[in-house]
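Lab notebook: predicted structure, single chain.

Context: the supervisor wants predicted structures on file for every construct in the current expression panel, including those that have not yet been purified. This is the next one on the list. No modifications to the sequence; it matches the entry in the shared construct table.
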Amino acid sequence: MVPFIYDDVKIGIGSWRYPQHLIIIKDNKQGIYSIQERKVILEPAIDNKFHLHTDTIGENAIGFHTVDGTYGFINFEGNILFHIEKFCIEGKRSSISASVYFRYGGFKNGIASVDRGNFCEEYDKNGNLIKKKWTRPLSDDTPYDYKEETWDAMTDGMYGDMPSNFDGDYSFMGN
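Prediction complete. Output recorded below exactly as produced.
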């Protein structure tokens, strides 16, 4: 499938289910081979220290991560467009790891969306943060009336069980 002129061939990160691209390696540089098109779409030009996410290919750029927790995008010439540090939140070093996911693919119309912790961030190709949106659901997106929930827990138990030896008179518990 791939010519024997490369040192190694491997499946890219993010394409385990249905691989569409392979990573081709020659002289410690990586390139990309399209399985569907059966051709090389990027000759080896990206340093081998970057782990490429082949499901993020878009507008001549690809997502990457390194072993030290740096994520970002690199162009097809091997130049880093921008990077995000896993242990850096809002520009400050942190002991808390803010997970980074490329769930939405790569660049589309000059913008890449990246999941970081409870937020989705949108970046341009210069690494400027364009938009940050809270994505974690609040209480499973169900509006709770905590006063009512507390009343139910006190009177019926959390699972609808009646307290043992209880005569059914709730008047002493309030409104």
